[in-house]
Design goal:
This protein is mainly α. It has 42 helices and 14 strands.
Length: about 950
């Protein structure tokens, strides 16, 4: 008998027959026990694992029921669920559980002395995977375990690759390693493995190109350089080291060939993936334990974008059945197209609820994940989300590295279709305006399932794409009554059936309206339902968004009735939310709209949430249904224009000041912009760390772009400039070139209206970078020329120097290193003429980098030493620590290991002075690498252990700790 969790949670007989072990939640109980097979798990712990933040009201009783049914399903399998004092234990041989068998095989492979033996064990272990671990289980506990297992899977793949390289089997690895390197663009171990495979395949120039790509990416994204072993590997390729072309002796290890010692800190990298292969592994026609092990699969990101399952969902059984039949994989459809269902109905009728309910009930059908987008097709602003914006988000979720995203919209759509072809994905496109809105978002091939919701009947999608339409009407009377009963209890609704009937009638049996009324009634259990019905009777009006429907008066009546029950501050916040440009709002932004404290804003949002007028979609982020947003927009339009402008000004102040503060953490040495102090009543979001600042930008990116558009449209030119400036670092690091081009074009116009020629010149520089990265080199050249002309006309030496530093990068990207060096040298001269010592230090670093790229390490060392002197003079301790680390890298490449070690020790001392614990650990890791290179393995191990202790202390679990542990676990050379 085989118990699987490395894919779906399944039980297979030795004959290859899958046993039925219940519905998804019951399988979740089995999966939670399988991971701890043979060990007791407390009942409360099981409930938390299986239900997460949405446990049933009688959690233990429900769990007992599921366990009882599991016992019956497992009869005869050799497994038994045993009741213990505080919980349950699954008595089952651990080797029959694939995850434990996988880990055992990996341990045995790592301990094997012969590479051939290790290869067989690793391949057997990886062949146990049949998709994403715990597929279909989506609670926080399962998600965390899934992430851990993904890491173990990638480590096993890398260890297998090391062994294959050691055996000389490099020719068959290049394609797979290329895909894996794109998927994990900051993993130096994978890049080193690919470089070795390419070099041994007679492709040395491609191996060096891979090094340059990673080196530039590390410098730009993380401000760091490749690790010492990867740099040493580059030198061996450059010098055609004969030893590199041959398999090393088994006792010598292969760390140079396939395991660089320095890994960048990916904790601050938002988008670590790139273009993955279309499918992690071939799928057998009849999967089962008797199937032959699959080839080593590439690790593929599994997106999980589906919003939480709706609470309080009742009824809709016929519609759920029809939807299930429509998207059944065996249902007839047009050849080569995805399975598509189009759910149509009026606003508030429950289209999204139905789609999400069905999706969550069938997650196990989609082992390759789920993509979700709210297209805002009926947003009050009249501006739906552009399909290309959604495609870019989907590419992020699918693991495409920002630098690998194609420049054109059509090319991006093509990449999206290529990535989704052959994968079993669910794509939910919510609130589509029309078929044309949806068409570019349809996945490739015929293995995906697409659910589309819209207020319109998407007949074009039906005729052209074979979509199966499903029209959704208001709830039947009995289900409308059941929805109220679910929220208020049988006793209360049963005590006054006439009032319940009147309430459902006034709500037009719209689920959204019923949910709002139920929320108010539940908040006031002492209110008689007859009184609530009377209040609804007195309400009247209509929403423009409902014109032409039979439910207009019902929706307006319910919204206005609920709105009038709010306290003054909550009611004012609801109105002002009609000004907000984004899908969601956080507490500091809401506080700024109100000119209130964060505590007061949080209380107002809680009151709106209790009334179902906003939804807390994720902790701290609140959104409105588009009908409620339309209602809020109507209300705020009645406010005096001056008050609207003041509120907008405070909101834009919040985003500009918060973005500026976050940018200072991302780029602390960037030349500052003189920003306007925020007005009274503005709350600024605080970001304690670099990682938190990055998280904030990622969460607020869409809102910030729309805020720039809003500011430009409403005449807030200063805010347009400041927001655009503050977003530049983040957008550039994420390679979000369309957003950067859009915002800087608006910023350029605002700067022109303000007469700010320096900002115009800077905007030209940023546009040049973005246009160049987007493949429009002629446009990039135009903007560089404009920027240089303007800076020269302004006699702004430092500005011209910054432009030339950027221009040098443009030449570098075109492989014109001599011209890149010349531009950096001109920038250095300009910074020196301007007396801009911080810029001079940056330019020295850039010149040094060019010399290092050209192989002139002596000159590179000279530039680093000059930069170091400037930083010491300026008191830039952080910069000095970084430069000592860079200088250590140069000396390490020169083979001057004693001087390299001294540099790393100086960096270590300064980082300890700064109490920068991560950088302290990083310097220790680099020092350990040099000690290892000099043959002092004992000292290296001691230094690595000290680094590992710090990383454990600060709770860091990223790649640097993984590499440190790998160094500590690697055997001593014989």
């Amino acid at each position: 008998m085989l118990f699987r969790v490395l894919g779906g949670i399944e039980v297979w007989t030795p004959e290859g027959v899958r046993l039925e072990v219940g519905h998804p939640r019951q399988r979740g109980v089995l999966g939670a026990l399988l991971l701890d097979a043979g060990r007791g798990v407390a009942a409360d712990v099981l409930v938390d694992r299986v239900w997460g933040e949405d446990p049933p009201r009688r959690g233990r009783d429900t769990l007992y029921s599921y366990v009882s049914r599991l016992r019956g399903a497992l009869t005869g399998t050799g497994a038994e669920v045993v009741r213990e004092a505080t919980g349950y234990r699954l008595a089952v041989p651990r080797h029959s559980v694939d995850v434990h068998h996988f880990r055992d095989l990996v341990r045995r492979a790592g301990a094997s002395t012969a590479p051939e033996d290790g290869v067989g064990l690793w391949e057997e272990a990886l062949g146990l995977w049949h998709g994403d671990a715990f597929a279909g289980a989506d609670t926080p506990w399962f998600s965390a375990r899934r992430t851990e297992l993904d890491g173990e899977r990638l480590t096993a793949l890398s260890d297998l690759t090391d062994a294959l390289l050691e055996l000389g089997r490099h020719s068959g690895l290049v394609t797979e390693l290329s895909a894996r390197a794109e998927q994990h663009p900051f993993d130096e171990r994978i890049t080193a493995q690919l470089m070795v495979a390419l070099y041994r395949s007679g492709r040395a120039s491609e191996a060096l190109a891979r090094y340059r790509v990673l080196s530039r990416r590390l410098a730009r994204e993380l401000g760091t350089d490749p690790g010492p072993e990867l740099r040493r590997l580059q030198q061996r390729v450059l010098t055609a080291d004969p030893a590199l072309a041959h398999r090393p002796d088994p006792g010598s290890g292969s760390r140079t060939a396939a395991g660089p010692g320095r890994t960048p800190d990916r904790a601050v990298v938002e988008d670590p993936g790139s273009v993955p292969p279309t499918d992690p592994a071939p799928r057998a026609a009849a999967p089962g334990p008797a199937a032959a092990p699959a080839a080593s699969p590439a690790v593929v990101p599994v997106p999980r974008q589906l919003p939480a399952c709706p609470r309080g969902f009742v009824g809709r059984e016929p519609e759920l059945r029809r939807l299930g039949r429509a998207v059944d994989p065996g249902a007839p459809r047009q050849g080569g197209t995805a399975v598509i269902s189009s759910i149509a109905g009026t606003g508030g009728v429950g289209k999204t609820w139905l789609a999400l309910r069905w999706a969550h009930d069938h997650l196990d059908r989609f082992p390759d994940g789920q993509l979700y987008a709210d297209l805002r097709g009926f947003d009050p602003s009249g501006q739906p989300v552009a399909a290309d914006v959604v495609v870019r988000g989907f590419l992020d979720a699918l693991g495409v590295d920002p630098s690998a995203v194609p420049a054109g919209a059509d090319a991006r759509s093509g990449t999206y279709r290529s990535l989704t072809a052959g994968r079993r994905l669910l794509v939910v496109l919510d609130n589509a305006r029309d078929a044309a809105h949806v068409d570019p978002l349809l996945p490739g091939g015929d293995t995906c399932t697409v659910l589309v919701t819209s207020r319109n009947r998407l007949t074009g999608l039906v005729t052209a794409r074979g979509a199966v339409p499903l029209a959704l009407d208001v709830l039947p009377t009995e289900e409308a009554r059941a929805l109220l009963t679910e929220q208020l209890g049988t006793a209360r609704t049963g005590a006054d059936p006439p009032a319940v009937a009147e309430i459902t009638g006034h709500c037009g049996r719209l689920p959204l309206a019923l949910a709002i009324v139920a929320a108010r009634a539940a908040a006031h259990p002492d209110f008689p339902l007859a009184g609530i019905a009377e209040e609804l009777r007195a309400a009247h009006g209509s929403l423009d968004a409902f014109e032409g429907t039979d439910h207009a008066a019902d929706a307006r009546a319910v919204f206005s009735w609920s709105y009038r029950t709010l306290g003054p501050r909550a009611a004012r916040l609801f109105r002002l939310l009609g000004l907000h440009p984004g899908d969601e709002i956080q507490v500091p932004a809401a506080a700024s709209l109100l000119a209130a404290t964060a505590r007061e804003a949080r209380a107002a949002l809680a009151e709106l949430g209790a009334a179902h007028l906003v939804t807390e979609r994720v902790p701290g982020r609140f959104g409105l249904h588009d009908l409620l947003r339309a209602y809020a927009t109507e209300l705020v339009a009645e406010e005096p224009e001056a008050e609207q402008q003041q509120a907008l000004g405070r909101l834009l102040d919040h985003y500009a000041a918060s973005a500026h503060a976050a940018d200072l953490l991302l780029a602390p040495h960037r030349d500052p912009l003189a920003v306007t102090p925020p007005a009274a009543g503005v709350t600024v979001a605080h970001h304690p760390t670099h990682a938190k600042a990055l998280d904030w930008f990622t969460a607020e990116r869409g809102v910030l772009v729309r805020a720039v558009e809003l500011a430009a449209r409403r005449g807030f030119d200063t805010h347009t400039r400041e927001l655009t400036w503050a977003m530049t670092t983040y957008l550039g690091r994420r390679s979000l070139w369309p957003d950067l081009i859009l915002t800087h074009r608006l910023g350029l116009r605002s700067a022109g209206r303000l007469g700010d020629h320096r900002w115009q010149a800077q905007a030209h520089v940023e546009l040049a970078i973005a246009e160049g990265e987007s493949g429009r080199q002629e446009d990039a050249g135009f903007h560089y020329a404009q920027a240089l002309d303007m800076y020269q006309e302004l006699d702004d030496l430092a500005g011209e120097a910054r432009a030339r530093l950027s221009l040098s990068w443009w030449y570098d990207r075109q492989q014109d290193l001599p011209r890149s060096l010349r531009e950096n040298q001109r920038a250095l001269a300009l910074f020196r003429r301007a007396g801009h010592e911080a810029g001079e230090a940056r330019a020295l670093n850039a010149v040094g980098w060019d010399h290092a790229q050209l192989g002139d390490h002596e000159e590179a060392a000279s530039c680093c030493r000059q930069a170091l002197a400037l930083q010491q003079k300026l008191g830039d301790v952080r910069g000095e620590a970084n430069t000592w680390d860079s200088l250590g890298f140069v000396y390490q490449n020169l083979g001057e290991y004693a001087r390299a070690a001294d540099c790393y020790r100086r960096a270590l001392s300064l980082n300890r002075e700064l109490r920068h614990r991560f950088s302290e650990a990083e310097a220790l890791c680099h020092l350990g690498d040099v000690q290892d290179l000099t043959g002092d393995r004992a000292a290296a191990r001691s230094t690595w252990r000290e680094a590992e202790a710090i990383l454990t202390e600060i709770g860091y679990e990223g790649p640097l700790r993984t590499e440190t542990m790998r160094n500590l676990d690697s055997p001593d050379p014989v």
